[in-house]
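Researcher: Batch entry, complex prediction.
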Amino acid sequence: MTELKIEAALVAAENDKRRAALKADYHALGEQLSRRGIDIDAVKRKVAAYGVAVPSWGVGTGGTRFARYPGKGEPRNIFDKLEDCAVIQQLTRATPTVSLHIPWDKVADLGALKQRGEALGLGFDAMNSNTFQDQPGQMHSYKYGSLSNADAATRAQAVEHNIECIEIGEKLGSKALTVWIGDGSNFPGQVNFTKAFERYLDSMKAVYARLPDDWRIFSEHKMFEPAFYSTVVQDWGTNLLIAQELGPKAFCLVDLGHHAPNTNIEMIVARLIQFGKLGGFHFNDSKYGDDDLDTGSIDPYRLFLVFNELVDAETRAAAGFDPAHMLDQSHNVTDPIESLMISATEVSRAYAQALLVDRAALAGYQHGNDALMGSETLKAAFRTDVEPILAMARLENGGAISPVSCFRASGYRAKVAAERPAVTGSGGGIV
Amino acid sequence: MTELKIEAALVAAENDKRRAALKADYHALGEQLSRRGIDIDAVKRKVAAYGVAVPSWGVGTGGTRFARYPGKGEPRNIFDKLEDCAVIQQLTRATPTVSLHIPWDKVADLGALKQRGEALGLGFDAMNSNTFQDQPGQMHSYKYGSLSNADAATRAQAVEHNIECIEIGEKLGSKALTVWIGDGSNFPGQVNFTKAFERYLDSMKAVYARLPDDWRIFSEHKMFEPAFYSTVVQDWGTNLLIAQELGPKAFCLVDLGHHAPNTNIEMIVARLIQFGKLGGFHFNDSKYGDDDLDTGSIDPYRLFLVFNELVDAETRAAAGFDPAHMLDQSHNVTDPIESLMISATEVSRAYAQALLVDRAALAGYQHGNDALMGSETLKAAFRTDVEPILAMARLENGGAISPVSCFRASGYRAKVAAERPAVTGSGGGIV
Amino acid sequence: MTELKIEAALVAAENDKRRAALKADYHALGEQLSRRGIDIDAVKRKVAAYGVAVPSWGVGTGGTRFARYPGKGEPRNIFDKLEDCAVIQQLTRATPTVSLHIPWDKVADLGALKQRGEALGLGFDAMNSNTFQDQPGQMHSYKYGSLSNADAATRAQAVEHNIECIEIGEKLGSKALTVWIGDGSNFPGQVNFTKAFERYLDSMKAVYARLPDDWRIFSEHKMFEPAFYSTVVQDWGTNLLIAQELGPKAFCLVDLGHHAPNTNIEMIVARLIQFGKLGGFHFNDSKYGDDDLDTGSIDPYRLFLVFNELVDAETRAAAGFDPAHMLDQSHNVTDPIESLMISATEVSRAYAQALLVDRAALAGYQHGNDALMGSETLKAAFRTDVEPILAMARLENGGAISPVSCFRASGYRAKVAAERPAVTGSGGGIV
Amino acid sequence: MTELKIEAALVAAENDKRRAALKADYHALGEQLSRRGIDIDAVKRKVAAYGVAVPSWGVGTGGTRFARYPGKGEPRNIFDKLEDCAVIQQLTRATPTVSLHIPWDKVADLGALKQRGEALGLGFDAMNSNTFQDQPGQMHSYKYGSLSNADAATRAQAVEHNIECIEIGEKLGSKALTVWIGDGSNFPGQVNFTKAFERYLDSMKAVYARLPDDWRIFSEHKMFEPAFYSTVVQDWGTNLLIAQELGPKAFCLVDLGHHAPNTNIEMIVARLIQFGKLGGFHFNDSKYGDDDLDTGSIDPYRLFLVFNELVDAETRAAAGFDPAHMLDQSHNVTDPIESLMISATEVSRAYAQALLVDRAALAGYQHGNDALMGSETLKAAFRTDVEPILAMARLENGGAISPVSCFRASGYRAKVAAERPAVTGSGGGIV
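Model: Structure tokens for the complex:
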């Protein structure tokens, strides 16, 4: 029996308030979709089976280099984080797994951690290593890089850390390692691009050599920040080279906020799928840089277009297509639990909308160069209000029709605020 | 009696195919909106009363500096263009006026032109001058600028041209002049920024002096193209200075595609409203630069956020708020009539969605710093599928439930293709 | 007698090593400039008289939201910072003043602080307020804004803080207040743009009312960060409105890294000069966003083009032209003292290069639309290696021919590292 | 004997005016470089041996989609163009080859064309195909794409055209084919990214199959324009995949203006070198998009940083390193001959500056994480005024110390203006 952090009775009572309206909306939408040749229940079943991982660090309040404004009841450790993640999963039924960050989530007793996850109904998604910060007592500093550092001992330390992440993950049931590094430079001339990348590849090969057979390794590209002139893994071109150099278990991870202005991200997704190297996603939204805003809050059509590629690949059973889905956001001005619930919903929404695309018609328009109708076909799917499908999927899975309302009604935040001491200080925030 | 370019019987027959489904969808949406405290008919009435101007040049096929690929049945002159515009208005009932470009649309008999517009049920919106091209027989070249040219005679010629545009517009019933110039530079050092802007302001003051009392003048900013290092009216800051320097009849025109990457355009709109200087819009969409893509085709949420500001201003009856709305797009790969119909619909859609925003709740969330619910309030309005409202407004106004289907069924394009000789050549296209 | 932090004998010895080569280079350059009609000594005198302020926070090691990697011997307080600033001034003779940040630099005994500055030969430049962070014990949080906060008490607190900064500055001999706020939003709908700006203007008017007659107030625009959807003072257009609304003592401050991608910054500078509202600069360089990299390290020609506008205004004695010059950088991977010395030199370099522009010839080319020669005229000035002029100015002013070599030879960093305890921790860094 | 378009006596007379000053500057610079351990004559020899190809279309006046303002004496055909190119080569001695564009430069008698090139001292660089425009009488239109068109016959036509370019090139002594296409889409949904790229690869494989053994094929990526939503070869990631898929004779061509805003281009260059796939360059400069401005006119340090990578690769004899160098610019407001002469000089300048980098010191700083001195090492090379080296290399090779002055003194433009009829019309321009 999964331990529920929000009382089932409260969820039920909240759902009762909205059930009739939901049924009416679901029925009306079903009628409309039926006219379009779509079985609403089939879509609902796919949505119900879909899930996105929550990052353990996402349930804390984020910040910027200027300040971090702590929220109430912030989790003190991975066990607190798991409880918050369990709330998200209980109400949305769309976030069955948690992705850990080492050493932030390191504990002595991994068995207890795994057990706690199981009790809360949570699995463990990809492991995340951290060589973009120095930890107390750490021998070699990452100030000038980690896996690509000019110093061999520093690189070895970073490699070891990644291997440790694999070892922890093995005990928790994880099947993937995500590697994002901040390595790069702030000045032309600071780093030799070629040598740095050679060192990076060497280090990654050492990590790869230790990867279990049934694991995957995801490298993540990012245009800039924390390095402001050059970044070792700066774009998908470099990321692709990495995956090619490492081997069949290596894949590229796409964070939606890590690209140059104006970049057509859905096209990068298509290319990586085509060449069998799409590892997965860090979902979020952005307007300027790696803003780590809530998924779908700025440009929901872009999110839909990414999912349009994913559903296209799923539909044609593209070879090697099995991307991992994770949220990765910084919640600076909202309750992290609320933001993650809404964001998980937005990912499901984009998936549901993409399922509505009339792919046969689309292929016809594309073949006939009917650009206008190609566009209209996507937009018809996007502008369909699929909220009734999402809500019905949640309801039938035991979640909440309106997760945020339910969460607010539950008093969970006040309860944990009373239990968890306030974080003081207002230094820069890390997400 | 308005002359109809598409047979009424055909429109009726097309509508008959879709009427029952529309009624069902409209009814279901009405129920849902009613639960949200919104009267669907009230929204429909506002949408029905809303219109956006069509640019005369928009009904021709556009192009790029690399090539222009002509379409079939392209209009040969302003009279052909008016006919195409009439089709758009007939089917969408959302484009009651046409905006002319001089000298492209110059004719000897303005009375005949006005009469033709009236016969087709079309009014004349803002006049557009053209000092970004040289015309055959023109005395002074605009190669190095027009209103800001270092040469006084060239500036005088450009001023005269703008005055001529006013004079033509007066005879047609227009009430505004839109001034967009390509002046700028391709090299640091080519132009003295300050002197060029002084000259521009002097020229514009001469035009302004001739502006009738009940007219407005709109200046339009643009970051780059056709000048690639500096542009005289490069952004809304400079545009604001122009409107301030000229006087109370001078306003700023916002083309959605004329900004730097990542710019928050809706915020510029809000600022211009706040200071009484928003003149109006050139609607289109873009991903990279002044792409002149179909409105709402790339980032529909951005379009909605602009309309959110407009409806907010309308709701609170902001002082001096009376923006002009016009489409301005380059149709390179679609039938221009189809693109303009869809685009007019997209503008109406954004307007309808913005009307659905629960402004009282929004104000409360904003006052209480509930960022998440502020966001959700906008998104709830945006994700409502308002197509039934738009279609019902069209239907009841005598238009088509599905303008593109109706247009295709009408055979209009084939008919005009037979009448209008094919344009040959494949030079760069101008929009 | 100014207290020197680096022994004069060491400086002299270092200079001796380089004096002969400098003389030869200076002589050769003088010959070449003479052929171009330029008196090298006149340029040198202008450069020698030029100075740029150092920000007190600049002498600490910066960081990002991901990590801060402390350096050795970081200053513990404003007195330590002054000593580091004195080193910069001693060796470069280009940084005679320091700009303070309150409350970071707040001390009980302002008289002692002023005296310490005088002893070290340093004056006090513009004061900087801080309402983008919460301070321990602060009544109202700035999590949701400061001068534009929806809550009146929070705004009043922020106004009071700015007034306190003025009061402190008055005691130190400062003559300006720089106001940069992080206010904005992370979600569409979080904030009402218009109301927020109204509140901001009201708050600023309250600060302005307290401004001494011989002071100026500088508002600083920034596109994004720490707010990632909208920023209250997002660009120079809004900044201009602020300066206009406040009055004749209000001016716009331009930070080179605070603009949208591709923005022509030198043109903004020209516009602000033309309309009498250029307050000054925060110099730095950037490639992606507000990277706060060392001035001139990424795009030195852009820096030159800004100075080209400044020298142009200086030459024609533009009305009201009196900009403040300050460095504002985040030194994450270098010794801050070294970076600031180099950066001060780069600013002087751009100034010297701009002084070499043949302005009469340039005006002629511009009038005659000779774009190529206009460009060549600027480039001829830019590509002149003015290092001998800068070095000679330093030498003759008592500074170092090679400030970095001299600094490294001095052992200053090791000395202060021994005195100042290492900062521990690796949280996000703030600059 | 090479036929000279500018009288040798005039060149000599012009050089006489500047020889003494050049000698003095060269001597002084030699002294300074000698102190830095650099042999100026060795640098001069490398510069003298360096050349960049001129595009045949570059000697015509370019334009934008809005207008093209013809210049005087524009070349009417490839023979006129060769004459203009010969002038550039005569005066700069840095542009020994011309790159042709088919069908623009197609002639019946290729033997005569080759002979004419030889007479003028010009060789033939890479061939350029054109499938981004329709030609009169062409069977299938490229409106919806060429090599990636959904229609097999259209693709076959585009393949045939590329093969024809190879065949022409073989007769002229060319050894490479550059393929740039405008294929892409203007709407989400218009094109299936994956299928379009599959078709593109198939087409290119057909072209590759016909490539002579001693030829190379260069594919060129570009972010956008003429397609404004997606472009088939949108970035170096896709370009790399193309080169990998095609085989060992396939390489990536980098046009400096074809990237997303803020992109670190020099890093892309480094990656392509590292993986043996750098084919060459289209040099130009840009501020906003594919502005095609004169090389080095906007950001000369960026150009230097690219050459820093090239010289680094040259120095360490990187495997497979043999990039082709070509200018590719649109001259809208200058005399194309003058712009190309200056641009050729700028490319040589960047090369000379990069040769001055103290690579041993740089490697040491990089190994020791001395970011500041790494930066300073590059900047010391960049800020060296190498004009005396360039001018001396030109002089000694028989060119002009000041090519533009010499060209203006020659009256060449007036002469050809009298011979070549003025181009009329002001349509959009194509480059």
